[in-house]
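Notebook B, p. 112. Complex prediction, attempt 2.
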Amino acid sequence: MGAPLLSPSRRLRRTPFSEGVEAAGVKAYTVYNHMLLPTVFRSVEEDYHHLKEAVQVWDVACERQVELRGPDAGRLMQMLTPRDLRGMLPGQCYYMPIVDETGGMLNDPVAVKLAEDRFWISIADSDLLFWVNGVAQGWRLDVLIDEPDISPLAVQGPKAEELMARVFGDAARDIRFFRFAPLEFQGRMHVVARSGYSKQGGYEIYVDGTDAGMPLWNALMEAGKDLDVHAGCPNLIERVESGLLSYGNDMTDDNTPHECGLGRFCNTQSAVGCIGRDALLRVAKEGPVQQIRALAIEGPRVPVCDKWWPVTARGKTVGRVSSAVWSPDFDTNVAIGMVRLTHWDPGDIVEVHTPDGVRPAEVQAAFWN
Amino acid sequence: MGAPLLSPSRRLRRTPFSEGVEAAGVKAYTVYNHMLLPTVFRSVEEDYHHLKEAVQVWDVACERQVELRGPDAGRLMQMLTPRDLRGMLPGQCYYMPIVDETGGMLNDPVAVKLAEDRFWISIADSDLLFWVNGVAQGWRLDVLIDEPDISPLAVQGPKAEELMARVFGDAARDIRFFRFAPLEFQGRMHVVARSGYSKQGGYEIYVDGTDAGMPLWNALMEAGKDLDVHAGCPNLIERVESGLLSYGNDMTDDNTPHECGLGRFCNTQSAVGCIGRDALLRVAKEGPVQQIRALAIEGPRVPVCDKWWPVTARGKTVGRVSSAVWSPDFDTNVAIGMVRLTHWDPGDIVEVHTPDGVRPAEVQAAFWN
């Protein structure tokens, strides 16, 4: 079956950049945090090649912010995550798993520390605001929590730095990876971070105010003409090659961070106060029994992966594939799957049950990019 | 612009009935609780006429359940809602607004009381599980909370009772409105409630177990052939005519239940323990300053309403329209909007700013169905 139609409604929120996205000829969307997220402009493969060669502007307004501010903001942040936040400074971004009391992942956002008592959590696809609010209410913390009018716009690709310097000045060049600085555009300051959901380099601009959206979109498009700038979006092929996980696809609240290969973002011993700490102490000590792996699936291009594909070995289920797509650059089907420890070593051969039939697949030592 | 394409992925979960939905020729979807919800089969208008004349089977698996069980389940339920639950008996369904500590609506589910210490909350489009879990964690309540493998299948339309009796036996006829009974199909019991998201009468079957989905779907289709049964879905025209609100479209967490015209489901004085009670006591006493209204928009058929349309009177903003569509039966554009008290009386004339231009609209005394 080809892609079905999406029925528009107010509930699937438009973004400050939707007008630009439509003018650029968006072909398809997904829905993310109750908001439209473009998925294809020219074609997934054309967008992919272009992302690796030039520069793209992405409407990722759907990365909504949960803002925490007030005396208990720092305490609440540490309650949310097993990552030790004591060393986090204003101006830093931290990728941080958020877990519930069982250690199950509720989101895998990037947190932005604006001040000692003020944070943004730039969320993946789940209503994290509800969890944060519920915890704050139950613990009667002194903190204000809301979703501000902040809409991320990503600039990604090898020419991103050049384009950003043209629009925001050379200060954009000085921003280090996972750091941010407030930069000015048309008289308003926006948080600009060196980050993004690709491995091609780039920035995320936390655009402050819906009205600032289209002027900035247009300025980037105008300034980047000779750089071959184009509207783009998170690219399925590039993200699987790069091992960028997608919450809801590759992991759910059933999974611990350790299963997702995010153990390096957990400091379970020292993250005192984290709600899921007790549950994760044992996992951290013994290790998970299944974990995310890169898989190369043999044969011609796989169909669209819109459900878990079982992974077996000698007739026994040993995992599942959650994302898979043909990679032109690596000339194989690249995939992300959860695999049991009996079969997760590099070179292990398993069977992936695609809708087109069973295919051999090889566990990789690392992702491709 | 016509409807764009939707890119499938695992994150937009398929349902136990997806196979049947596809075989029935689904034309478009929306995304609801991270799950596919069909929106069109033949056309919105054909589906609408058929719903009012025959019987339809709807895949509403996206109405996910939040299950609460344990000694504190009842206490936690009352914390969630300003509706007084003391009179709720096992076997009853309650429509209940869920509010945060500011009285803002987080969801407007139907709660199902399975036993004194066990409930399902059949949710609208927000991750209510996160709020319920956060509150339970913060208050250290003795309650288990999860999303069980329960997928509602609705049977709606004037011939629904006849079809249900053929598949579940005459016991289905005895179920009163907003009551439920456990009924058997192929050796398994399913909760069957007289309820549903239309005003045409019908049932919701809380299908227990993914594997039970397609056998039941097929049995309903087979048994209803001479009743002209067809796959259907919540219908935009019918729901607006009927004044069935949609969370995320017609109301958000900015709105109190009273603004949404749901004051009759609030017993703010007696709902002791409700988290939002303090905030709502004043609203309940003084009344809201804006409220949901039915609006008839003049002129030819309005375009797709995918964002708030401002409502003005003499140049001043007095509200917004959130859902609007042409009604063949009532020969007008029917709409749902939030209107300030200065202009909310029946017969008041306001101006609606549609993308096609400004149109006069008349505030109605009631919805159409």
